[in-house]
Amino acid sequence: MEVKELGHLVLYVSNLERSRHFYKDVLGWRAIPAEMPGAALFSSGRTHHELLLIEVGEGAAPIPRGRRVGMYHFGLKVGTTDDELRQAIADLRAAGTNVVGMSDHTVTHSVYITDPDGNEIEIYIDVQPEVWREHPEAVLAPIRPLRI
């Protein structure tokens, strides 16, 4: 077997409407019209769906803080230039999104945010894709503060 690509992500959310607003109106995902009680589908247009939200209610256990087993974050590529990332940062801040960090990973410039349930999301651009294609070890370069 060979994995060809990451197909989709499924997240449990406490409040479907709040999360639907965040992923559609703040992050710009396209909502897929489907009748699924307690759930919502989204796509960037690359495939039938890339994100599925399933409502589990406000009483569900929150994501534990600190080091834990499970997902750390997922990444969403928003372009290839620092100008595109600057615009994304401005849009996120205007929407009141919780920005938790920014990093220069040599191969990416990244901004870290959280969704309404505390899931961490990396919003990034690829920096000189030829660098990581020709020198895959560049992915392991020391992390520096992002200055854009």
Topology, pairings included?
Layout: E1 9-13, H1 16-26, E2 30-32, E3 39-43, E4 51-55, E5 73-79, H2 82-94, E6 98-104, E7 108-114, E8 120-126, H3 129-134, E9 144-145
Parallel strand pairs: 1-4, 5-8
Antiparallel strand pairs: 2-3, 3-4, 6-7, 6-9, 7-8
Molecular structure report:
The protein is of the alpha+beta class and 148 residues long. Helices cover 20% and strands 32% of the residues. Strand 3 (39-43) and strand 4 (51-55) form a beta hairpin. The longest helix is centred in the middle third of the chain and has 13 residues, at 82-94. The chain starts with 8 loop residues before the first strand and ends with a strand. 15% of the residues are buried. The mean pLDDT is 94.
- Approximate strand percentage: 25-35%
Biggest pleated sheet: 5 strands, mixed
Shape descriptor reads: globular
Q: pLDDT under 50 segments (min length 5)?
A: none
SS-derived structural category: alpha+beta
Count of extended strands: 9
Helix content: 10-25%
Radius of gyration: 16 Å
Average of the residue pLDDT scores: 94
**Count of structural domains:** 2
Q: How many angstroms does the end-to-end distance come to?
A: 41 Å
- The tally of helices reads 3
